[in-house]
């Protein structure tokens, strides 16, 4: 039966891509308040599309922040399973804008890839699901299973309100299992089941010295330089071996078993040098880059700033310096505990003569691992393999999807991560893109999966 | 005879302050190319004013960068000494603009201080000289000595073209001695002769890791973080004792003699905590804050930036990180040598997996010391003391004035530093200001000094 839906997708490919372009053209950047109207426009687009497809109760939930789009389809019958689909319509900021080859919000196809912010993370993948549901409705007049759609607009800013909504709406949103497409494959055209995700937490450090920028000639030698002090603090948190030197950071970390190391080794991972442009990879002493990225915790400074950044020189001692830090966590690490020891370390190493303030990120998530042998996972692998014509691999990945932990926590249902992104998509970076080939094969995977699930 | 000039200054105080406001209202920021027109306007203001006063050959020299304003007065006769007056009409940038209580280019008087960018450094002090010459011309019809005026527009960006101009125009600019008012007094109302200045040099460090910002989940653990690597490099250059840990940095440094330490100790210095807002001063181990600021070399990070600085979080590994560094030098240190060992240290400590680039600042100056017993210095001290009603102190200061070294180098004439700034002027910072009281007493000092010089 899924063949008709597949034919519909190929026959209507052009118009579907046009509709995708319309969606990608909306600059729904959630972290920047100037885009509030665009966020609303993206939410409206989804609500209208879901109505057109034939979903019931398509509506927008006022979360207190950006709206969450919800819709459901219950006509597959009470015997049919119900899936909760989660995705997000908000995107990362586009800076540095001058590094984009084409306008991030004017989608452009080059070399078989569609270039636009959100093309891969996550508007593109969300759209694939809706297009597949449209294909089923237009050809069969129904869907193979009951579906509940939950698409939020705050994923890129920590899904601040999602947990509460998932809790408040538990009766309405509840389902037999959940499907999320907000992840990737280890290589283009390599079907991949994510059975492990990293947790996440972060802090911001602010160091304040003088109450205003000082002339370095008049006061150099009399006061601490906040930037230098922040350098001392940060340099004490990770060493040249890429080992995190914060007391207790690795406590309770579930070690990588030889079997798991072998699994990781066998994954045809991407070429990190090629994908990142570095001459040489660097990883935690004792682990390969692949092992560190997929299975070991990380500590990254995402941004740091203080003092003069303009043209030429400005001979000042700046008043403040700031660093934004996030960590990716593995099973065995508690986000709140990690934040606590990071904060303790900062205050322990903070020198006299400056004021050091630590702000804890609201976003926090434990790491996640799923049972690779669950039938719903097996069926996903089968659909993947059929669509891509290649065996599916099972991997752990370095990314964090807090909603995965929350759905598990609140609904306690199996979660299937059907990701179609590729390592070259440049998520969160200039020139984000998504391969049209993955667009086609990904939709075929979904068509087959929904049929399999209720087979 | 100087009494008439003094009377003129007090009788015309209001109109002179209005003219000063007109000068300060021109946003002559030299480091930012968007202010090119304003720089030209400030130069025109000076040329016109010098013409009105009665100087000859008032003209603008095309330096290849911002224009240099020159004028001369030769009618004091061949027996009268000739002074070369140097000042600058360009100013520092105003950022962070939101910290200004009033518009930096709309001068405002509050609590006896005139608030405006350049009010102290250096437009205000330049204007005092011109007003005094005006006073002499309007009352005596002549000046007590021959005067050559040299006012540049590139001091805040390293006086890139000044050295060449001073060399090219040597025959025209040459004089018996030079006077510069681009410095300050150790405390308001405390006449101060600067007998020592620090030298100056700087570098910019750029660290590049991946060729684009990376998703910290997909690549965290596979590549070096450029910000963290820059932290490691910088933290290795100065320690917790505020001692610079770059091999050879202190080589050849002329030690502070007990006599000099006593001199510094006896100077009623400012209250650093009050002036800077720090709870506790910090200085090189073994030296007081005053000793370190006035007589020991310094190393300051003026600015550092990399990665995300916006609202919220952005989970990236940034592509690049940058630090701007300047050092203040003391007698015995060679700027070029210091740049060389800083660069060597950076490359020596640079880890694999990132590209580290060091850019040497063009601006460079050796430290300067003058003989406190020179008659021209003694006369300056006498005029100061008369005008301010207080004994003049002799100090070394942490600031750097490259032109001092260059005039000494090219013209080999005595240089008198007549500074009227005060420690609370907030040079290079938001809310720069200058006391009206210093404006009056400073001009009186100049009136008396010109009379003394040719007495």
From TrEMBL, chains A, B:
Transmembrane intervals: none
Biological process terms in GO annotation: proteolysis
GO molecular function: metal ion binding; peptidase activity
Keywords in alphabetical order: Hydrolase, Metal-binding, Protease
Peptidase M20 dimerisation domain sequence ranges: 195-352
Keyword Glycoprotein: no
Signal peptide: none
Superkingdom of source: Bacteria
This protein's record includes keyword Hydrolase: yes
InterPro entries hit by this protein: Bact_exopeptidase_dim_dom, Cyt/Met_Dipeptidase, Peptidase_M20, Peptidase_M20_dimer
Name by which UniProt lists this protein: Acetylornithine deacetylase/Succinyl-diaminopimelate desuccinylase
């Amino acid at each position: 039966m899924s063949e008709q839906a597949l034919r519909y997708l190929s026959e209507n490919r052009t118009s579907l891509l046009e509709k995708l372009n319309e969606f990608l053209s909306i600059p729904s950047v959630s972290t920047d308040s100037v885009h509030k109207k665009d966020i609303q426009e993206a939410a409206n687009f989804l609500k209208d599309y879901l109505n057109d497809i034939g979903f019931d109760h398509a509506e927008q939930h006022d979360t207190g922040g950006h709206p969450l789009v919800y819709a459901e389809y219950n006509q597959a019958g009470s015997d049919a399973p119900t899936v909760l689909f989660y995705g997000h319509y908000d995107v990362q900021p586009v800076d540095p804008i001058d590094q984009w080859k084409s306008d991030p919000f004017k989608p452009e196809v080059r070399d078989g890839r569609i270039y636009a912010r959100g093309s891969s993370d996550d508007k593109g993948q969300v759209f694939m699901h809706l297009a597949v549901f449209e294909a089923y409705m237009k050809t069969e007049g129904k869907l193979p299973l009951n579906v509940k759609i939950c698409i939020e607009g705050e994923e890129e800013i920590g899904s601040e309100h999602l947990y509460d909504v998932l809790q408040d709406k538990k009766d309405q949103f509840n389902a037999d299992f959940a499907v999320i497409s907000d992840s990737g494959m280890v290589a283009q055209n390599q079907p991949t089941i994510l059975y492990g995700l990293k947790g996440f937490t972060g802090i911001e450090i602010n160091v304040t010295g003088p109450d205003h920028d000082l002339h370095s000639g008049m006061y150099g030698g009399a006061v601490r330089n906040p930037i230098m002090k922040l350098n001392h603090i940060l340099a004490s948190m990770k060493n040249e071996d890429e080992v995190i030197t914060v007391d207790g950071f690795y406590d309770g970390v579930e070690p990588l078993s030889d079997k798991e190391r072998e699994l990781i080794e066998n994954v045809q991972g991407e070429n990190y040098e090629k994908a990142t442009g570095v001459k040489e990879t660097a990883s935690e002493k004792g682990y390969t880059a692949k092992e560190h990225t997929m299975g070991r915790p990380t500590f990254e400074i995402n941004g740091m700033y203080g003092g003069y950044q303009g043209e030429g020189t400005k001979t000042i001692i700046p008043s403040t310096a700031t660093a934004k830090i996030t960590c990716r966590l593995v099973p065995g690490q508690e986000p709140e505990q990690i934040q606590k020891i990071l904060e303790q370390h900062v205050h322990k190493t903070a020198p006299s003569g400056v004021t050091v303030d630590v702000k804890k990120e609201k976003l926090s998530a434990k790491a996640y691992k799923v049972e690779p042998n669950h039938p719903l996972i097996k069926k996903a692998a089968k659909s993947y393999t059929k669509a891509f014509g290649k065996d599916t691999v099972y991997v752990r990945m370095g990314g964090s999807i807090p909603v995965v932990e929350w759905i598990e926590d609140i609904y306690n249902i199996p979660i299937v991560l059907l990701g179609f992104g590729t390592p070259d998509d440049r998520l969160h970076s200039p020139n984000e893109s998504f391969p049209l080939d993955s667009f086609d094969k990904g939709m075929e995977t979904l068509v087959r999966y929904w049929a399999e699930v209720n087979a």
